[in-house]
Amino acid sequence: MEIKEVKHRKKQYLSLLLLADEQEDMIDRYLERGVMYVLDDGGVKGECVVTDEGDGVLELKNLAVEPAFQGHGYGKALVDHICKTYQGLFSTLQVGTGDSPLTVPFYEKCGFVHSHVVENFFTDHYDHPIYEGGVQLVDMVYLQKKL
Question: What is the 3-state secondary structure (H, E, C) of 74-114?
C-alpha cells in the first residue's frame, strides 16, 4: 500500500471525489488550493484532500474509498497518513460532514470529537437533496482532532 500526493490533474479522480462530495462545483471550491493524496494498493482505492484553514487548522475536505473496498481500513489509513504528515505543522485536523450514521461514527473511531454545527449547510449550498444511509443531510457537523 502506498499513499502519494497528487500535484497535477487532480480531476482525473473526479469519480472518487464525487463519492464524498456529490456536487462538482463544491469540489471546485477547494480542490486546487488543497493537497490531494491517493491510496494505491494494486490500483487506486481511495483519496483525500486537505486544506489550510488558518490558525493552525487543517481541514479534511474530501475523503473517499471505492465502494468495493470500504471497510478494509483504507479510509483510516488515509486519516492516519494525514495526521502523521501534518503533526507539528498544524494543531488541529477538522472535518465537516453530514450528520450521517455512516460517516460520523467513522470519524469518531479515528479520534475526532464534535466541535460545532453549521445549520442548513447542505440545503443552502447544494442544488439537490443529499442522502446518506437513508438520511437527508441538512446540517454540517464539524469534528476535530488534535495533531
Answer: HHHHHHHHHHHHHECCECEEEEEEECCCCCHHHHHHCCCEE
Q: Is the pTM of this model over 0.90?
A: yes
- Contact present, 137 and 120 (Cβ < 8 Å): no
Q: Which residues contact 90 (CB under 8 A, 6 or more apart)?
A: 52, 56, 57, 58, 147
Predicted confidence (pLDDT) per residue in 28-62, tens digit: 999 999 999 999 999 999 999 999 999 999 999 99
DSSP state of 70: T
Phi and psi of 113, rounded to 5°?
A: -125, 155
Q: For residue 91, what is the DSSP state?
A: S
CATH no. of 2-146? 3.40.630.30
Q: Which residues are CB-contacts of 28 (< 8 A; sequence separation ≥ 6)?
A: none
13: DSSP letter: G
Mean pLDDT value across residues 101-116: 96
Instruction: Single out the residue of 139, 70, 147, 55 nearest to residue 99, CA to CA.
Output: 139
- CA 28 to chain centroid, in Å, comes to 14
* CA quadruple 45, 132, 113, 30: dihedral, nearest 10: 60
